[in-house]
Amino acid sequence: AIIKTALPNMDREAKEEYFVVIQAKDMGGHMGGLSGTTTVTITLSDVNDNPPKFAQSLYHFSVMEDVALGEPIGRVKANDLDIGENAKSSYDIIEGDGMDIFEITTDAQTQDGIIRVRKPLDFESKKSYTLKVEAANIHLDPRFLSGGPFKDTATVKIVVEDADEPPVFSSPTYLLEVHENAAINSVLGQVTAHDPDVSSSPIRFSIDRHTDLERQFNINAEDGKITLATPLDRETSTWHNITIVATETRNHSQVSRVPVAIKVLDVNDNAPEFASEHEAFLCENGKPGQVIQIVSAVDKDDPKNGHYFLYSLLPEMVNNPNFTIKKNEDNTLSILAKHSGFSRQKQEVYLLPIVISDSGTPPMSSTGTLTIRVCGCSSDGTVQSCNVEAYVLPIGLSMGALIAILACIILLLVIVVLFVTLRRHKNEPLIIKDDEDVRENIIRYDDEGGGEEDTEAFDIATLQNPDGINGFLPRKDIKPDLQFMPRQGLAPVPNGVDVDEFINVRLHEADNDPTAPPYDSIQIYGYEGKGSAAGSLSSLESSTSDSDQNFDYLSEWGPRFKRLGELYSVGESDKET
């Protein structure tokens, strides 16, 4: 089945969809035949047969004169009954007195025309603008071009409103020139600014001191004249860049700034001088007229035509019999020898004063002294030695030979020192001296005191070991193999307490100490106490003799005193026999 349109010039914008019911019959449509129906939906596709149309023919906008460039100030809209690509339009400003001030662009999402500021506005110079804006379809269908232009226009009026603007300088930048010898408070130049508003507020000028830290310049706050505050020196700084600030007196928030570049012009106030400290070397076998040294000069000034130096000798040195000078074309100076036969022994050093002058106004000059040293040279003119002492060295002995001889002497001295050191270590004995024997610590006391009964000559407490206060008496005659905890001892007792009990307690501790050495050691007790059963153990000034002593009690003191008791028992038996 073929479906055809029954009406011409169908309009999608009027009706987009149509529903058609189709019936099919068999038997050729005769009676008794069967039939069926179906519904067909027909959708009309869009063509670009409608132009864009502005919603209104006149638009009004207002904008402040200080609006930023590129800022949108309004929107216009041209509607198109078509859809999709056929509805897209572009906007242009085709007429008006603000074609170079404003611009219009198309919003791709909303198809609006956005008007923006292209150049700065000035309420004082122009208060309003009139623009003619056109909207046109981008995609045209040639079949419908005869239907009329696919575009539309509208008028846009823009009113500029006044705003409080900052001061405006007469120039965006300033360039001033001043000679470096300018007097203090002399005027270097002037800056001007005005308030563009109708009210025209007075302006005050100042220098941004962040750009003039040394405060070399001042400015008149009323008329903007810049003056010199401190002396200038072109050789120190050729350019000075400062910033001038203009502020409205009625509204201090309205501020403008402008850069001012100050160039310092040169004045001939520096004398030329040698470029460096020169020291020339003259060979003893040199020839007359030989160039000894070429020197150059520098000048801190910067003349327009470049530097030109004049060289001369001091008046009293004009007839110098040894040297002369010659000016070169490249503004340098050559020093020449007048004769030959210079000798280090006769004179080792010559001083040649040279006067250097410039061509400035007024001319400046200075005197530099060139040091000329007489040296011994080889046949090809190579300097070998400039010392007088080197002249008296044996003939044929070069500096390299002297260095080799000196190195040999130093090497011999090092060998001798090493030999002596080794011999000394070899002669040292391997046996440790008795005084350095670490196996014994013998403490000698030369003061014997007044005997056992003398308790007032000295304080008996000083003989007690301080370590004994805590109950732990370390053994100094041997280092224990086992580490043990100190025994809890008795507290120190005052004088007059029975010492026998004190000794018995210590004896018991020594007998039961597993870390004690397996040999007897001397125990020194500074105080024996009164009424001691053992009596005095000292043989010095003892009132009794050995024969009066009974040593049988030693066998009762434990296994540690068993050997001592046997020795004394043997002695007693010998005396009896």
TrEMBL record:
Pfam families: CADH_Y-type_LIR (PF01049), Cadherin (PF00028). Residues 531-548 have a biased composition (Low complexity). It comes from the Eukaryota. The keyword Repeat applies. Residues 10-54, 55-169, 170-274, 274-396 form the Cadherin domain. Keywords: Calcium, Cell adhesion, Cell membrane, Cleavage on pair of basic residues, Glycoprotein, Membrane, Metal-binding, Repeat, Signal, Transmembrane, Transmembrane helix. One of its GO terms (molecular function) is beta-catenin binding. Residues 531-552 are annotated as: Disordered. GO terms for biological process: adherens junction organization; calcium-dependent cell-cell adhesion via plasma membrane cell adhesion molecules; cell migration; cell morphogenesis; cell-cell adhesion mediated by cadherin; cell-cell junction assembly; homophilic cell adhesion via plasma membrane adhesion molecules. SUPFAM superfamilies: Cadherin-like. One of its GO terms (cellular component) is adherens junction. Its main location: membrane. Coiled coil: none annotated. It is found in: Cell membrane. InterPro entries: Cadherin (IPR039808), Cadherin-like_dom (IPR002126), Cadherin-like_sf (IPR015919), Cadherin_CS (IPR020894), Cadherin_Y-type_LIR (IPR000233), Catenin-bd_sf (IPR027397). The chain crosses the membrane at residues 391-420. It is a single-pass type I membrane protein. Cadherins are calcium-dependent cell adhesion proteins. This is CADH8 protein. It comes from Pycnonotus jocosus (Red-whiskered bulbul). The gene is Cdh8.
